Amino acid sequence: MSPLSVRRLLGPLPLVRGLLRWGVAILCVLGAWHLYQWYPIAGLVAIGIAPVLSLFLFFRGLNLIVRTLAYWKTRRHLLATRLQPTWEDKGAGYFFVDEQRGLWVINGASGKLTDITRLHAHGDGLGHRLELYATSQKPAAFYGFRDDAALREAAERLQRACFAHSGRDVPVTYNEGFMKDETTHHTNKKAHE
User: Does residue 78 fall inside a structural domain?
Assistant: First the structure.
């Protein structure tokens, strides 16, 4: 992949987007203060709304600035491996899988599909996260999803891709709150055929 196609794939730099949100937060505060100077009644309403809006924009900008490190690491891995993703998710970070070559990149961590030993899915009221385990007891990488359905779909698709490359079944375990009817899910018979 060329640097331009990687930039198109990843989108704009989170640092720039975060700094722009901070700039908008500062403009909201300054605008409310100046509105108060010119029109006191309307300015009081603006002064009441501006801190809430500014805090939201500040912390959203901070979240984007924190994602900058994962952006650069992911960019470096995409360029080094010349990954051509067959499927991706960019909701809570960067999740790319190249099923033809058997490679994955998640938030700056990368590896081969054949190295994955198990997958663990967490789903509760606070979030939905998929953890990839390789050779160690610690997760090699994890990625957050917006809901249970997206998490389940990604786990099953990643499981099928691992089976296609390594020929072995990679188990997916779900935490207690995610699926009450089963704790371990193995690839179905259709995926083996």
Answer: no
45 and 94 co-located in one domain: no
Segment 55-94, tens digit of pLDDT: 888 888 888 888 888 888 888 888 888 888 888 877 777 8
**158-188 pLDDT per residue, tens:** 888 888 888 888 888 887 555 544 444 555 4
Task: Give the Cβ contact number of residue 178 at 10 Å.
Answer: 18
CB contact at 8 A, 54 and 25: yes
For residues 51 and 126, membership in a common domain is answered with no
Q: What is the pTM of this model?
A: 0.69
Q: Token pair 């720039």 is at which residue?
A: 16
d(CA 42, CA 9): 44
Domain that holds residue 169: 84-192
Residue 107, phi then psi, degrees to nearest 5: 45, 45
Whether residues 99 and 27 fall in one domain: no
